[in-house]
Amino acid sequence: KKNGQKGEVIMIIGGKTALIKEQIEDRKNKNAKYVEIHTFKSDFIDLNETINKKEILKQNQLIAHCVHSPMSNFLNGRSALTGPSKEERTDNMRLFKESIKLSNEICDIKNPIVVIHCGGEMPSNVQNKEQHRIKQKEIFQEEVLKLSQFAQKNYPNVRIGIENVQKFKGATERCYGYESDFVDWIRKMNLPNVGTVLDICHAMITIN
């Protein structure tokens, strides 16, 4: 939206930085105006201390428009929707909710975004991969619904962006998050504050 008119899209082009003084100053020297905040799990040990780092952004005349949730959780696992165990999913959900709060507090645009990775691991010993994939997607949708409701109740201006992941094989492979219909089945959930984020590098890895 622009000038109160619906249908117009504003594109933000900016950089990415951790909440580290040297990185922030580097982005300013490169003439960035907007930045996505890349977080680590250590940023959530004392969330109020992390929120106070907004002053460093102000000092360098940078505007945060987005917070990327941490890549790992406090159990040293992957921080993503649909974790491999209930314990990890609980820890991840706490990080996601605090990422939403951080975005609300540190970003200086009307509708800040929180970027969250989807998970969907496919262990190599799974016999029925399609059944496992369906179950993982069900858990994913339950967790997205919880996050959506949490944000709507507590931080209604924040938008949640679910990022596509790369398809890979190894000890574990992905069972969803890279398919051509990834956007469609999130859109079908019809949640007003949830959308998708395209990671071009992840998409290229999947194609290649």
What can you tell me about this protein's structure?
- 29% of the residues are buried.
- The protein contains seven helices and eight strands, in the order βαβααβαββαββαβα.
- The longest helix has 26 residues, at 129-154.
- The model has no long low-confidence stretch (mean pLDDT 85).
- Helix 4 (86-106) runs parallel beside helix 5 (129-154).
- Strand 3 (63-68), helix 4 (86-106) and strand 4 form a beta-alpha-beta unit.
- The radius of gyration is 17 Å and the shape is globular.
- The protein is an alpha/beta fold and 208 residues long.
- The termini are far apart.
- The strands form two sheets. Strands 1-2-3-4-6-8 form a six-stranded parallel sheet. The chain has a two-stranded antiparallel ribbon with strand order 5-7.
How would you summarize what this structure contains?
The chain is of the alpha/beta class and 208 residues long. The protein has helices spanning 21-29, 47-51, 54-59, 86-106, 129-154, 182-187, 200-207, and strands spanning 15-17, 34-38, 63-68, 113-117, 121-123, 159-163, 172-174, 194-197.
Short descriptors:
208 residues; alpha/beta; six-stranded parallel sheet; two-stranded antiparallel ribbon; globular
End-to-end separation: 36 Å
Q: What is the C-alpha radius of gyration, as a whole number of Å? A: 17 Å
Largest sheet: 6 strands, parallel
> Could you tell me the strand content as a percent range?
15-25%
What coarse outline follows from CA principal-axis ratios? globular
Low-confidence stretches: none
The strand count comes to: 8
Number of helices: 7
Determine the structural class based on helices, strands and strand pairing: alpha/beta
Q: Helix coverage percent of residues?
A: 25-40%
Order of helices and strands: EHEHHEHEEHEEHEH
Overall residue-averaged pLDDT value:
85
Strand order of the largest sheet: 1-2-3-4-6-8
